[in-house]
Design a protein that fits this description.
It is a single chain. With 303 residues, this protein is α+β, with helices and mostly antiparallel strands. The strands form 2 sheets. Strands 1, 2, 3, 4, 5, 6, 7, 9, 10, 11 and 14 form an 11-stranded mixed beta sheet that branches. It has 5 helices and 16 strands. It has 2 domains: 70 residues, no CATH class; 196 residues, Fumarylacetoacetase-like, C-terminal domain (Fumarylacetoacetate hydrolase, domain 2). A hairpin with a 3-residue loop joins strand 2 and strand 3.
Amino acid sequence: MKILRFDDDRIGVLRDENQVVDVSEAITSRKAKGPQRVIEDIIDNFRRYRRKFEQIMARGNGVPLSSVKLLAPIPRPSKCLAAFVNYLDRPDRSLDTLPNEYFYKAPELVGPEGTVELLDIPPVVVYQPEAELAFVMGKKAKNIKEANAMDYVFGYVPFFDISARGMTRRTQFVPKGQDSYGPCGPWITTKDEIPDPHNLVVKSWVNGQARQNYNTKFMAHKIPDQIAWLTRLVQLQPGDVIATGTYHEGLGPINNGDVLEIEIEKLGRAKFLIKGHGPRKDTEWLPGTSQPPAPQGGRMTKV
């Protein structure tokens, strides 16, 4: 099931890829709970809500997807974490050499057609959008074993980690964690629809130009490993969002006025807008990055 937020904070379910069914009536005290608590309530009690949603969908009422304004599928999770360097995208990278590391992103997530506001923070050379698969937690989790970690996943969502280049590794985490630097969407796809999250094609575009095109099979620390490690350190809550890292090829700068797009196989496509403090260079690529590759169906060359 694909669950989304739209218009004046209503809850919908996507049907037949292009029709939204409003299921808001199934949620008691929706306005009193507020946006985030509503999503957490759906996740906490999804078995019950799923039956209600399916009953509403059976009535046949729906509107075209193009007629609604999509909102961030998770408005403000208690935690938004992102994996640091978690892909086998260079010959010198292996599971043994890549530490299982994370950093916090601001929980104020940006929904489809929303705006990422770039900050003019020296000595940032450039900002780059990293297209990533993110998973949404379904249950409270602490000290979870890798063997049953997937039982704690509720679903998946496409996610951009807006990254600052030109700073040291330590200092870049503050700019990377700014408000609006976690655009995601278009919706949450529940876990049952994705048999293998480690075999999905991830693509991104800037102003219609192809940037990234890779497969999640190159992920170093897989989702069960990530959950097991993270829950040794923090208690994850229903609705928490964890971005799993990116394949560092096809990255390039973003500028004021640019349009970002992300698409992940079976998870949908979303567009975001960039607002900045004046133009930034868009003709130069940083050392170690490549020109944006042509679509390759998920096959990537090493960098």
